[in-house]
Amino acid sequence: MKDQSIIQTKDLKKNFGTTKALDGLDLDVHTGEIHGFLGPNGAGKSTTIRIVLGLLHKTSGEVKFFGEDPWTTAVKLHEKLAYVPGEVNFWPNLTGGEIIDLMGHLRGGLDETRRKDLLGKFQLDPTKKFRTYSKGNRQKVALVAALASDVPLYILDEPTSGLDPLMEQVFQDEIRALKKQGKTIFLSSHILSEAEALCDRVTIIREGKAAGVYTLAELKKEHENLEKLFLSKYEGSDSSEEK
Amino acid sequence: MFAGTWNLIKLIIRRDRVKLLIWIAVIVLFAAMGPSMMAGTAGDAIAAQKGSGLSFGAVMNFITGPFEQMDLGGLVTIKFFAFLALLMAFFATLFVVRHTRANEEMGATELMLSGRASRFAPLIATLIVGTGAILLMVVLIALGMTASVNTIHGGWAAFAPVADTIRSTATNVGGSWLFALGMGGIGLSFLSIAAIVAQLTETSSAANGLLGVIIGITFVLRGLGDVAVKTVHGVPTASAWSLFSPFGWMQFTHSLTFPNWTPLIAFPVFAIVAIILAFILLAKRDLAAGLLPSRKGHARASHVLLSDLGLTWHLQKNIFLGWLVGNVVLVALIGSMGNQIGSIYSKSSTLSDAVKNIGGSSSNLTTGLLSYMLMFVAMTTMAYAIQSLGKLRAEESSGHLENLLATKTSRIKWLLKTALIPAVGAAVMLTLSGFAIAATASASGVSGINFGQYIFGTLAYWPLVALFMGIYVFCYGILPRAAGAITWIIFAASLFVEEFGALIKGFPQWISNISPLSQLSGMPAKDVNIAAFWIMLTIGIVLFLAGLISWRRRNLTE
Lengths: 243, 558
Hints:
The complex is a heterodimer of chains A (243) and B (558). Chain A is of the alpha/beta class. Chain A is built from ten helices and nine strands.
């Protein structure tokens, strides 16, 4: 199954000073699937993504991204992905439209019909300066910029935080459409209903380690729903969650 | 109206406890050290002026104010007035914007006002703490200066050549307090101007930019006033231009030479009117809104923005244009006074010696003084380059860079592109400044201006820019969070050595020797120090490359 893997980590560790952000994480995202990456705040989701993108240097362990080391070949690998960061921060005095064009251009191309289509579906006014958008609209800028790019992989870090339920629906439809085209989606989230509605498989992360990998079919067999499973992973860990 | 003010006062003091202390310490130390620092060499400096009966003349007046009296008081005034007054102005404006508009922009004000705080409380608290800090500075400056000048025989009137003394009534205590209160008045004026401007713009960067322009304009207005200085009843008095500038009001007190307390009244009157206006504006507007309209933008990115250097130019262009306009206007004003220099100074041989010391070995006074001004241009150009490079860190810490580096943009290319703008920008700025001073001096009637000599003479400062860019990038590679602070401190230290090193008795010569600014200076009147030129260029490039390599290897940090 190894040739199918688009993102693969083995015993991945990352320390910030004395803090262990990742403590031996195993992760395997297959080509063509929607892979959920679930965990509470501070579990190490964003750190993992940043290592996979080559923005952070791993402390030890193994990372393969399209079969290569993301730290040394970051730029070549980035041509194949679009990314929505966990905290959407764009240049405050550029407009949403300018940012979407710019990010598309930097990723190597923007599908014009797609851009128009997505702006309509997400009901985003592209003429406003980024700093004047509300939280949800900022998120939409990042989403439109990412989804308008034609790439094999989409890495989305809590992409729907701040979106209203109508927009959440638009988002889910778009993600399903992408999967139909054979794209891979790596979706970090803590909105369990969203993950349950979309994902083929989920990895649950706890304190920098994988606490389990499930296909949705397996999950439905063993647990009533994702929420029950998720909560069962964190029972009795209240004290360790606090800093 | 005052609800919540006390809590906000505590919050401001808590947030700025270190910042405030540093500002206060720097301003107070400079003022307090002034007299004893100058005492070592004051005798020589005044002897150099003796007999001419003239001050440094139009060009120097423009920058430092007139040399009102040939004694310690006069010397401390021209050496410290402009510097301290500008520090005061920037302290006041940055402080107000940080605690009003910047909070509003990031949403913190919304949170405060949702609690038990009145709409006016943030501005009231800011003005109270700001005024408190200024008052503290006034007291400390006055006490420090008094203590310092008391150690010098003759006080503020020390070193006066007897024949030249008209009268000097500045007592040690009175002069020092008047000087301190004048400085405080400048701080208070800009505190209240900033209170107005913070209501006008939507962003803190726009507010700071607008305030920078206002400080620049008021400083130039008083410069024009000082150029046209006239002696009224034995006291050198600036012309009407200075009436329109808080800097000018302070100068009208002649605190250390011919003290006059009356002009001080201008400061509280102005501050009260301005602060009332600020509160009227605040009462009229919505939270987070400005009074200046915010424009709608383009739905599509332009070809310029999508071009290779588009984004980095977009991010850095305002910094470039601001410094460029400031520099060119300054040198054009100075150049256009060029003809006055020659006619006044050709009569005085002692004075020409003094100017030659400043400007180099040239026997041509005009060239010497214009070259001296171009050194200021070199310094501001270096400051421009450091500020512009600050975008490296700002983009990283704001999270913007994460978006970019997740595309096919490489780290190395991103840094090189960001550095290219200030590298080329500085060269353009130096070239245009050299050209502008030559053109305006030529137009004002100075004969024999060689344009090439001025342009290349100014451009010869570029290795200094490269050196400081190298220092910044080196620090950025290994200590990203401290890169700006370290580079600015080294820069400030170099300016200090250049401006004051020679004046302090017993100041170690080797420090002056290794200070980059003293090795490459005085062009085009002086020849370019070829060795220094190449050494600084090489050090700059080596540091830059070392920084680039460590940047490639390090984590992104917030």
